[in-house]
Amino acid sequence: MLEAASAVSAASAAVRHAAAVARLCGALDAAFDAGRRPGAPETPADPARHATFAKGVRAALAQALADPDLVTAAQREGSAEKYRRHLIAADPHGRYAIASLVWQPGHASPIHAHQTWCGYAVLEGTLTETLYRWDEARSGADTVRSHPRAPGAISFGASGRANIHRLSNDSAASCVSLHVYGVAGEQMATHVNDIVALAV
Ligand SMILES: [Fe+2]
């Protein structure tokens, strides 16, 4: 009986997770629809340049933060060596990919700009975000400032070197963040980060 009960509970958790993923995808689809101009192609090259799109992605992330079933226990599991990324969903039209990132204490991303638009929200723990300014003459980035990003923090950025940052877990507890990138699922590891060097 206990086994049957736990099988039912696992099945209902999977159903709730699928519904939460569908809600987030629906909100992102709506952000694309809101930014589309009559007669324009369905997927503009860089929708992040439209303010309505950025607003829509932020709203989708805010809704996702309040959805406890979106990120499963398995998608909150970290790795000892470096921050771990779990693909949660990918748009069938290749317009976006959704992932959780799990950061153990001491884990950090490289300093990077983005090849595409992206948004993220902090689900658990506190990340530190360091911002940089690109110096074309020196072909490198200068540190501007760092700030803590607590649970509930939401950020959105367009592609390009006007937005350079590094995320790190400088705390003693693990962190989980939710990310949405403007790429197809299989391009997430290769077509998002534009890694840059510090200026010397
Ligand atoms: Fe980033």
TrEMBL record:
One Pfam family this sequence matches: CDO_I
InterPro entries assigned to the protein according to its UniProt record, in alphabetical order: CDO_1, RmlC-like_jellyroll, RmlC_Cupin_sf
Keyword Iron in record: yes
Disulfide bond found in the keyword field: no
UniProt-recorded Gene Ontology molecular function terms: cysteine dioxygenase activity; ferrous iron binding
Database matches in CDD domains: cupin_CDO (cd10548)
Swiss-Prot/TrEMBL keywords: Dioxygenase, Iron, Metal-binding, Oxidoreductase, Thioether bond
SUPFAM superfamilies assigned to the protein according to its UniProt record, in alphabetical order: RmlC-like cupins
GO biological process: L-cysteine catabolic process
Residues that, per the record, bind Fe cation: H112, H114, H165
Cross-link entry 3'-(S-cysteinyl)-tyrosine (Cys-Tyr), positions: C118-Y181
Xref: PANTHER family: CYSTEINE DIOXYGENASE, CYSTEINE DIOXYGENASE TYPE 1
Family note: Belongs to the cysteine dioxygenase family.
Protein name: Cysteine dioxygenase
